[in-house]
Design goal:
This protein is of the alpha+beta class and 147 residues long. The protein is 26% helix and 30% strand. It is elongated, with a radius of gyration of 28 Å. The model has no long low-confidence stretch (mean pLDDT 75).
Amino acid sequence: MKKSYLLALALMASSLNVYASREGMGPREPRATQPSTPEIVKWVGEISDSASDHTTLHDHKLEFKNRETGKTYDIVDSPELVKLHHENEKNYSVEIEAEKTPRFLFWGGNLIVKNFKVLDETASVPHLAPRAPSSTGREFRGGGRDR
């Protein structure tokens, strides 16, 4: 019982100490944060869509492979480039001007292509029929609970 009183007293004293130190500082001034400017890159490389994603469902996931470094980036929010790839069913060698999205842990680091110039067609990628979903759940196999 005595320990709990001491613990409560210690918590109150530390919280009063924090409150008193904040009161002595006066009003807080807002920090001057500089807006981060997006990183704009101008690269030459190849856009492609993996064969497994290139179906008639048109759920394209374009990637850009930088010719100089060999690094691959996902292309996001670039409707004109997706439209070109979709309508012609081809991969292209391109020169792009893109915004590189901010990176946090393993998110981000993608490209939003603002402008592009087609240099060459590299491969024809015809649309495939989508795969039929496999039914592996209990309710599909008839192995569910009896009612």
